[in-house]
TrEMBL record:
Protein name: HTH lacI-type domain-containing protein
Keyword Cytoplasm: no
Pfam families according to UniProt: LacI, Peripla_BP_3
Species in which this protein is naturally found: Enterococcus malodoratus ATCC 43197
Limits of the HTH lacI-type domain: 4-59
CDD domains, per the entry: HTH_LacI (cd01392), PBP1_LacI_sugar_binding-like (cd06267)
InterPro entries: HTH_LacI, LacI/GalR-like_sensor, Lambda_DNA-bd_dom_sf, Peripla_BP_I
UniProt lineage: Bacteria, Bacillati, Bacillota, Bacilli, Lactobacillales
Listed Gene3D superfamilies: 3.40.50.2300, lambda repressor-like DNA-binding domains (1.10.260.40)
Keyword Ligase: no
Single Gene Ontology MF annotation: DNA-binding transcription factor activity
UniProt KW keywords: DNA-binding, Transcription, Transcription regulation
Length: 335
């Protein structure tokens, strides 16, 4: 069977090659929606797909977005619904826009040099990077970059860099206040390891937790701060607190499971993510919905806008609203 080309598609659809190209690339043009549907119908008829490698060489674009997930750990846990929710949003929007994504976890910046030498990415989406990492990435990458769940306090002069975040400090304040409103005063904070020298999601949530305590006239008790690698300590020292702020539904599920293993009484908690398991756990979790899928969709859409319209002004910061979902894991203090 003869190999179908863009010329064949244009001829059968009765349009120019440029029009077919614009439709394939979702570029703004004056073609009617009806004509776009006719062009796509002809493409579907022949199962036509453009040669991306050839187009990349000619047009210097690949339709490839690199997803860079920063982690201090050697292994990324794809079992965490936080990651799968984010990836679902990224993949959904990329597919809708005719783009492709490649996921790469990194904890060393030399990985980025290797990636850029071997792949022609149109842009990058970076997840969870700290300030010093962001500075290095901005220096290494000249193409558009979207940073998700990353905080940066240094002025940026480039127009092709955007930050997509929640207001983590405010959301954590709201979550902690829910526990305080239910009479709890000894409130633990359970999270991945963090340092206030590296601004990020967890430090911002810690600050929101402290803000709520201070508002109620309470002093921070550092003995109530537990890192995820100290789960056993968190469980065994449960007599020192009546409730906890836990940094993800995933960690909350591990905590609840360990309490049951040890035949210990449940303690009130509020967590973050509102993932698929939050309402299925017993008790169902009061949690902060961070709209991770929406963050993924927004990030791909914004990077596509920057690529299609490089002269268009784009706001450097985009705030995604979160929402505290109240379920059954917050109880009135009885102790």
């Amino acid at each position: 069977m003869k190999k179908i080309t863009i010329k064949d598609i244009a001829r059968e659809a009765g349009v120019s090659i440029a029009t077919v190209s614009n439709v394939m690339n979702n570029k703004p043009n004056r073609v009617s929606e009806k004509k776009k549907r006719e062009i796509r119908k002809v493409m579907d008829k022949y199962n036509y797909a453009p040669n991306l490698n050839a187009r990349s060489l000619v047009a210097q674009e690949s339709k490839m977005i690199g997803i860079l997930y920063y982690s201090t750990k050697d292994e990324i846990d794809f079992g965490d619904p936080f990651i799968s929710d984010l990836m679902t949003g990224l993949e959904f929007e990329a597919k809708k826009l005719g783009m492709f994504i490649m996921f790469h976890g990194f904890n060393e910046l030399k990985d980025i040099d290797v990636l850029q030498r071997n792949w022609n990415f149109d842009g990058f989406i970076v997840v969870g990077a700290f300030e010093h990492i962001i500075t290095e990435l901005i220096d290494k990458i000249s193409k558009p970059i979207i940073f998700i769940d990353s905080y940066y306090n240094i002025p940026i002069t480039r127009s092709n860099i955007v930050f997509v975040n929640n207001d983590d400090r405010e959301l954590s304040y709201t979550a902690t206040k829910l526990l305080l409103e239910h009479g709890h005063r000894q409130i633990a904070f359970f999270s991945p390891k963090f340092s206030l020298n590296d601004d990020g999601v967890v430090p911002q949530r810690y600050l929101g937790y402290v803000d709520a305590l201070v508002e109620y006239g309470l002093k921070l008790d550092e003995k109530l701060l537990f890192s995820e690698d100290k789960l056993e300590n968190f469980v065994s020292e449960k007599q020192s607190y009546t409730a906890s702020v836990i940094n993800s539904d995933y960690l909350a599920a591990q905590y609840i499971h360990r309490l049951r293993d040890c035949k210990l009484k449940f303690k009130s908690l509020v967590s973050f993510d509102n993932n698929i398991f939050a309402k299925l756990l017993d008790p169902s979790l009061s949690t902060v919905d961070l709209r991770q899928k929406e963050k993924g969709k927004i990030s791909v859409s914004k990077i596509n806008t920057m690529l299609r319209n490089p002269d268009q002004t784009v706001d450097s910061h985009f705030l995604v609203e979160g929402e505290l979902i109240k379920r059954k894991s917050v109880l009135e203090r009885t102790e």
